[in-house]
Amino acid sequence: MSCSLLEFCRLQELKTVRDFLFQSQKTERVEENEAENQLSWDTSDWESAWESGDHKEEEQEQRPTGPWLQDCTVSLSPCSDLLVVAREHRAVFLSAKWRTDDSGREEMTLAVSWSGTLSSEEGECVSSCVCIPLASQKRSSTGRPDWTCVVVGFTSGYVRFYTENGVLLLSQLLHEDPVLRLKCRTYEVPRHPGVTEQHEELTILYPAALVTIDGFSLFQSLRACRNQVARAAAVGSDVIQPPPLAYKKWGLQDMDSIVDHSSVGIMTLCVFDQMKNASVLGGFHASVKGSPPAMSQYVTVGGGPYTGFYYAVEGSSQPLLSHVALAVASKLTSALFSANKHEEESVQKHKPKVEAATPLGIRFGLPDSRRHGESICLSPCNTLAGVTDDFGRVTLLDLSRGVAVRMWKGYRDAQLGWLQISEERGDRDFSPSASLPRRHALFLVIYAPRRGILEVWAMQQGPRVGAFTVGKHCRLLYAGYRLMGVNSVTSQGWQLHTQQVCLLDPGSGALRTVNIPFHLALSDKKSERAKDMHLLKKLSVLLKSRDLEPDVLGTEVKSALLEIKHPAMKKQALESLLSNRNAPVSCLSDITRSLYDTLKQQDPDQVDTELLQLCCSQTKLLQLYTDVQQLQSTTDTEEYFLKEEVSRVGPILHRYSQLTSRPSVTFAQDSPDSPLSAQAFLSQMEVTENGELKVNRGSEGDWNQLGNFLFWGCLCGKSPLQKVCETLQRAGISPQQLLTLLLSVWLQREKEVLQQPEETVKNLLSLLHALSTMKGAVDQSWDPQSVSPWWQQVRTTCIQSHHSAAALLAALVAHSAAKSSISSHRDTKLHSEWEAVSLELEQWEVCVCQLEDVLVLQTLLLMPPPQGAAAAGAALCLCPCVCEGGIADSVSKWVFRQNLAPQRLKEILQEGEGPDQNQQDTDRTAELLLAVCRRFPHSLSPDLLHAHCCWEYVVQWNKDPEVGDRSLSSSLDHLKLISSPHVQLGISSMMWSTFILKRFSAAAFLMEKVGKAAKDRLCRRDVGMGDKAVTQFLGCCVQLLQVLMESDSAVEEVSPPELSVEEAWSGAEGPASPLCVVDSLSIRYESRYDILR
């Protein structure tokens, strides 16, 4: 992976910016044309035709078409959210905005937010500017700037501070000479324990002076000025002039001319360098201090000498407070020149007094009488600097030693920038020094406008690692600083998103940054591993992009994958590719096959075995996926058809389908018709050591989706059954897993199966026959007199399913397939005149009978309640348990939901309903209930059903006695309809002890306490219901006690009933019903008739 230029932003209204900044040139040319017209003949009439055609060309010639951006002062914020373009006294501010392009992607643009005139003094022009983002002081900040301050230097010597909207915050005259260059230094986290922590500062260069402003005081002053301006704008008052800034001014001596500078920061010499400097400066008898002093290093470029090094000892000069000098100057002026005060003020504007600079001599320099420096660019690590000169050379300086270590020639008018690249975390995994801090690589970026080329060089003696052909009128923007107002405490946890070097192209308005991989600074083996890491990152970026065409994506990914050298990296890249959902199947197959062929051509001793096995297995799985996908477009026909069986259960299937086909809301990703991606297919498949395929069962949704992909086309008749089964058999998938997948898709898609039951049943029978004949499905030594594990798996799946209709159809089909298999087995082992009795067929008969019973019962339970009836209070069990009263319990809940009267239920059970029932739905309900009772004659006998209904109604009444008074009356009605006194006594005794006794005792105590009918409030407090409900409750208690007396007296005359279960359900197991009638028969309480009467 090599260097690259990435466009991250684009400028809007660039033509408007150019026209605004170059208005003076256009105005001067128009005035010249008007003067020439006044001195010439009036030929407007006959030359109008000629001028009209050339008018547009003249306007275009008047506008600057050359490198107009080189004539402007340009500054870009390190956060890339503000760009300032200034020329003479005008300036344009462009702020970041987000917009959506034609393809729907979000992209950042820089649009004009403010334009106007910055100069306030007559004749002054903008000479330099910087955009300083100020950090937010809020605790929730993550590193984004709060706002950006624009610092502008003028030829008059003034330095002014503006907001992003062009509002002036502060203006101060620091020196009477023109401002040459503004530079800023912000806080950087020290990379090593012994590195001196550098402070923030703003440096201002004049022709013979250097002014430094402390960053902390500047940050506080700018915040206060901005708050004061905002407060004054909100109130409408005048802005109070803030106090001037505290600063230091150094008079730079011993240089003929200075054009640029760099503030290296605070440094401390070692003991040897301290003694050497003392000897050179003071001679043999110079004294040396005990500890080396801290010094601020400044490097200047210009002429005589070519480069100068200055050292200012910390604490040698106090900050200058110009407002104190202003006050003294004002008093002297008023005392000495009070007579001429008004005249002087009217003639000449008063300028503040400027303090003298503290002399600072040059320590040493690089003398070159013919060479003149033009610019200097300091590296982020403050140890190197690049210098350009008028000879077209770029010189690399080692600032710690003060020597030139490298020089490039042929770069006239060059522009410099630095890039510091951090090592990726993954690169340290292969390094022997993985526990050490991350390394950093330094690169020098050189833009040569004369040649239109941008080059990247590795430091210090490294080669050129990148070169790009760009325009000849671009500007290389390098800030060299980050956010101001950050320290070692506030920077913890921040992720500062800043651009180090940006290239601005005025032709297209594009802002591009240089992307350099870290491995380009390395060599040999380390470089190969680092390059593999960057290739892996490039591959992940390609897989995330959705704009590339499949062919282009496949070519790019294949080249990146084959270029990776390390086997572990190549395996990780292949796994990342196979797990990506955006890559098409053809691309995955082609890349995997190419990688497999490449590995096979290499020396077997040098090929990683795990990588080769992974390529082989994934190639096999992708081929299986492609084959199954292609087979879904062809069809074939089969001869199996269960017409009689499907016709017999057809009516109940039709009614069940009507009740379950209600509209429902589903998400698109959860739809069973959604296609299975190749990545999801590969994630569920695993190739074993012996070459067979194993399906890894994950979530239920993924399992069903895989079953849909393999078998739903066959069940619908859209895929050839035999070919699909042969393909799956050749792949090596076990028949048991294929059978589980087939049954899961069959049961899951019950609604689609019931829409065309005959065709789907025919295809399911063909698939079961095909799967049963596979190797390993049915054991060859299986005895028909025993239970086959293959068919037992089908029965277990059908019985445990909640989809009763699909389970019944699957059982009918499996029964037919098992019968055919046993018949063929019988023909080979028995004589034709004997009929084989198989335990397997007996198991199927019982299973089919049970599933038919469950389907009829479930159809009844799915009947919706009539309009106006109360909603169901209990949950509906789709596959009810038939053990210990489970059937009667489910039907009793259904009776309560249907609000079926006890007398009506008795008539239905006795088949005595009259012709007065006119509603067709009621007839259908009665018909379904009778059908269920015929299938469960013992579990749904009238006494058992009335007993469970009685219990269900009293349970519902107990949940809300205030509202459910009718439920208690209905419960007593069902209790009275029980013919067996044993069942009646048991149920009434359980009702009394469980629900009635506590409330009845509370009501009795309350009436005894009050002595009369209690009020509503007392009834609710003690009994839990209102006074009216208490009255009805006591009436029901009287009826319950009457039933208790009657049933207790009749128990001795009648023998207890015998409770039994249907033969098909005799071996079923499961939890018992909440009401066990068998237990209630054994409950006997001693009755006191004297108390009851």
From TrEMBL:
Subcellular location field: Cytoplasm
Domain Rab3-GAP regulatory subunit N-terminal: 68-477
Domain Rab3GAP regulatory subunit C-terminal, residue spans: 737-1073
Region (Disordered): 48-67
Top-level division of the source organism's lineage: Eukaryota
UniProt feature, compositional bias: Basic and acidic residues: 52-62
Keywords, in A-Z order: Cytoplasm, GTPase activation
GO MF entries: GTPase activator activity
One GO cellular component term: cytoplasm
Family as reported in the entry's similarity comment: Belongs to the Rab3-GAP regulatory subunit family.
Protein name per its UniProtKB record: RAB3 GTPase activating protein subunit 2 (non-catalytic)
Lineage: Eukaryota, Metazoa, Chordata, Craniata, Vertebrata
